[in-house]
Design goal:
804 residues, single chain, mainly alpha, eight-stranded mixed beta sheet, globular
């Protein structure tokens, strides 16, 4: 006899007031703007992120009978996590780290591909490690090679720089020996590594270290980071019959990856110190291996061997463990995070002491042999990106999703862009410093140069930038023409949409142009793909050219046809200017943002989008604000539904809709049944679903719709960011509402004598559909409270001040 099927659980009983929890989008908003009232009060939170209400609604849950028709409005303001402090604009210098961290989260959807998913994560972490080494190597190139070795060792250069007098080789002072100059200059890159460690540790404490409310979970369920290998909703691979793995964003430990960040911080800090130690000890050891050295070569050999061993340990730490998400990762590998960076720092100290040993016979000439290191770094990054592309393509072919960016190659393309950004920034610094030290000469060209200049590879990489820009003209021109044609084709449809109002050609053209331009967002993946592919090929050509010729492009083409020689020199000079200008632009933008509030707001928007994801690949990336915001929202919703038993709508605009969805995923089933989700101007599918399919793809979004009580998504054709959710099911779940009419009125009327603005991505609340859909969501959540007799007093218990 078949067992009886248990009856479905009863619908939640509505015993309290309704709440609308508003979450703003990119750029931030004040509580007064969100609530439409200058009088607001903070309910819970701090100066960084907090929940606010109107003053008159401060204790709204005490009097639910007052809110039968309109919900209590709360505003969650999280702009202080991203764009509140001017000094945060300096995070622009960490842009390559942030971009490579995004590549970690862009892997295609995978189910049951444990090894492939782990390999994807390992390769991304190795690319991230190479960027740390590249940044440190560039600092060593500037401080050790260009300043301490070349300029201080060349009288013609050091005489022009009075601040280098005590290091000058021709003055014969205590610091004039090459090894001692290198030892002193090593303080600069070592201080840079220490600063990155400090910022990573401090931002973790300020943003991401907030312990969850339920801190009892340990990491015993997933000691080896196996959770990284599971796709959202994948079955348990152990075959032991346990429940399926929940969607990734709903796992308890997703927003608390303390253990991995600490491990990666230790490994990257050690790698930075070891890079400096290798640069210092390598120069001294090479001299000691020559005849006539006063220092036994065994000392240098022992230090170099220890550096290799410690570097192997750092690479093993990066490869060994990924993210653990099934349980909150509360433990720390205390010995590892203490002794690995400490050992690397000790080796750096030994290298400095070894280099500072007196060697009267040692004279510096030419440049430090760092060319090979930069070539291997560039070659290694290219190979890692190719491997990452093969793994990503394999994952996509196993579980293809039509809307996935570049057929699964979005992550490798973004990783390639991160390497290119790292090359532009590091090469720009080296090129500008070399030009500054060389005065009127051009480093590497021989004629008029007093120093050798930076490695030849950096000049070749700079030379391909003009070529890359020329290659981009074709797709940019194509998109421009296509957008103009699309706008012209939209004209009759727009006039028909607003009929019977008389046509206005200027008004029609403006609406069509904005709609066609908004559609360009969907073409962005192909631009990224073209740039990444061209960067990979041109970068490989630069490595080959520098390796085979050993000269900068302007000299490598000497003797060739006149047009070829002229083009090479033009590409080298233009590229050198562009690569230096790119770095100066980063610095100038950061400085302007520090002084200008409007610029600070604009730059803050970049981090609103780029730092949503936890630091899973690079620990020196800007901090993840969602590790604070998502638990805040989830805790607030749980507190409301538990204490009031009332209805709740979480209403998110733009990036706030992504935070809202992530918070809903974190709710327990009992709380989720009382929650409705209202999103508008949302990039949750248009951007996140396409670029991050394993976390916001079709399957996770369909699961979100089925798990939440009700969901509505509003979008406009004029919005370049927001779009429909596109839940392709039968029957249609009816989540999307749009495209909404924008502008609301085509021309001037007696009721609207002034022209209505085209709102695009903003002011969704101004559309009457917004209030209509919010009311419909409240009705779906449950009936309104019955009206009480006049003068009646509610008997519901209240906790007074709302807690979260």
């Amino acid at each position: 006899m078949a067992p009886a099927v248990p009856p479905p659980p009863p619908p939640p009983q509505n015993t309290g007031a309704a709440l609308e929890l508003l979450v703003h989008g990119v750029g931030g908003a004040t509580p007064q703007e969100m609530l439409g009232d200058p009088r607001t009060v903070r309910v819970t939170g701090d100066a960084t992120a907090a929940v606010y209400r109107r003053t008159e609604d401060a204790h709204g849950e005490k009097y639910p009978e007052r809110y039968r028709d309109e919900p209590v409005a709360e505003a969650y303001c999280w702009s202080g996590l991203t764009s509140g402090n001017g000094s945060r604009a300096l995070w622009l210098l960490l842009l390559p780290f942030m971009v490579v961290n995004l590549a970690h989260w862009m892997r295609p959807t995978a189910t049951g591909r444990t090894r492939a998913v782990r390999l994807y994560g390992v390769v991304v972490r190795l690319v991230a490690l190479s960027l740390t080494v590249l940044l440190t190597a560039a600092a060593c190139e500037v401080a050790l090679d260009l300043v301490a070795w070349q300029c201080a060792g060349t009288p013609a250069c050091s005489e022009r720089r009075s601040w280098l007098g005590f290091l000058s080789s021709h003055q014969g002072g205590w610091w004039s020996q090459p090894g001692r100059r290198l030892a002193l200059a090593a303080l600069v890159p070592a201080a840079l590594v220490g600063l990155l460690w400090y910022l990573s540790n401090r931002t973790w404490s300020a943003y991401e270290s907030q312990s969850p409310l339920d801190a009892a979970d340990a990491d015993a369920c997933d000691p080896d980071g196996a959770e990284e290998a599971h796709g959202p909703g994948a079955a348990d691979p152990s075959g032991e019959g346990r429940d399926p793995v929940p969607p990734a964003l709903g796992r308890p430990g997703f927003w608390y990856g303390r253990r991995l960040v600490a491990r990666l911080r230790a490994a990257h800090t050690a790698a930075g110190f070891l890079t400096v130690a290798a640069a210092v000890s390598g120069a001294a050891a090479r001299h000691d291996r020559t005849a006539g050295s006063s220092v036994p070569q065994v000392f240098g050999a022992v230090i170099e061997g220890a550096i290799v061993v410690c570097a192997a340990v750092a690479v093993w730490v990066v490869c060994r463990r990924g993210r653990s998400e099934r349980a909150r990762d509360m433990r720390l590998d205390g010995a590892l995070i203490t002794y690995l960076p400490g050992s690397a720092l000790v080796l750096l100290g030994l290298a400095v002491l070894h280099a500072g040993w007196s060697r009267p016979e040692w004279q510096s000439s030419g440049s430090l042999p760092g060319e090979t290191a930069f070539r291997f770094l560039a070659l290694g990054q290219g190979l890692l990106v190719v491997v990452l592309a093969l793994v990503a393509r394999s994952l996509y072919r196993r579980t293809p999703e039509p809307r996935t960016t570049l057929y699964g190659l979005g992550g490798p393309s973004v990783a390639m862009l991160a390497c290119a950004l790292g090359g532009v920034m590091t090469g720009g610094v080296a090129q500008r410093v070399a030009d500054w030290l060389d005065g009127p000469g051009t480093p590497g060209m021989g004629e008029g140069s007093i120093i050798e200049g930076p490695p030849v590879l950096l000049s070749w990489q700079a030379s391909v930038i003009p070529v890359l820009l020329l290659l981009l003209l074709a797709p940019v021109l194509y998109l421009t023409v296509r957008t103009a044609r699309r706008a012209r084709r939209m004209g009759p449809d727009i006039e028909a949409e607003y009929a019977p109002e008389p046509p206005d050609r200027a008004r029609t053209r403006r609406i069509a142009r904005i709609r066609a331009t908004a559609a360009l967002t969907d073409s962005a993946p192909w631009i990224v793909g073209v740039v990444s592919a061209a960067t990979l090929l041109l970068g490989a050509a630069a490595v080959v050219g520098s390796w085979t010729s050993g000269e900068v492009p302007g000299r490598a083409t000497d003797g060739a046809a006149a047009p070829v020689e002229s083009l090479a020199e033009a590409a080298q000079s233009t590229g050198s200017w562009l690569i230096g200008f790119g770095f100066i632009l980063f610095v100038a933008s950061g400085r302007r943002a520090y002084r200008d509030a409007s610029a600070r707001r604009t730059i803050g928007i970049l981090w609103d989008v780029g730092t949503f994801w936890p630091r899973a690949a690079h620990p020196f990336a800007p901090p993840c604000y969602a590790e604070r915001a998502v638990p805040d929202l989830a805790s607030r919703m749980c507190a409301w539904t538990a204490t009031t038993k009332g209805r709740l709508i979480i209403s998110g605009h733009s990036q706030g809709s992504v935070l809202a969805a992530a918070a809903v995923w974190q709710l327990p089933d009992t709380a989720r049944r009382r929650v409705g989700l209202l999103t508008y101007g949302s990039p949750i599918e248009r951007l996140y679903g396409r670029w991050f399919p394993a976390y916001f793809g079709a399957v996770p979004l369909l699961g979100l719709n089925r798990s939440v009580h009700c969901w509505r998504n509003l979008w406009r054709a004029t919005d370049p960011i927001g779009g429909p959710v596109r839940l392709a099911t039968d029957p249609d779940p009816g989540v999307d509402r749009g495209p909404l009419k924008d502008p609301l009125a085509y021309g001037r009327t007696t009721a609207l004598p002034l022209p209505e603005p085209i709102l695009g991505h903003s002011d969704y609340q101004a559309d009457p559909v917004f209030a209509k859909e919010r009311t419909a969501l409240l009705e779906e959540l449950g009936p309104r409270l019955p009206r009480q007799a006049a003068g009646g007093v509610s008997t519901q218990k209240s906790s007074g001040r709302s807690s979260g």
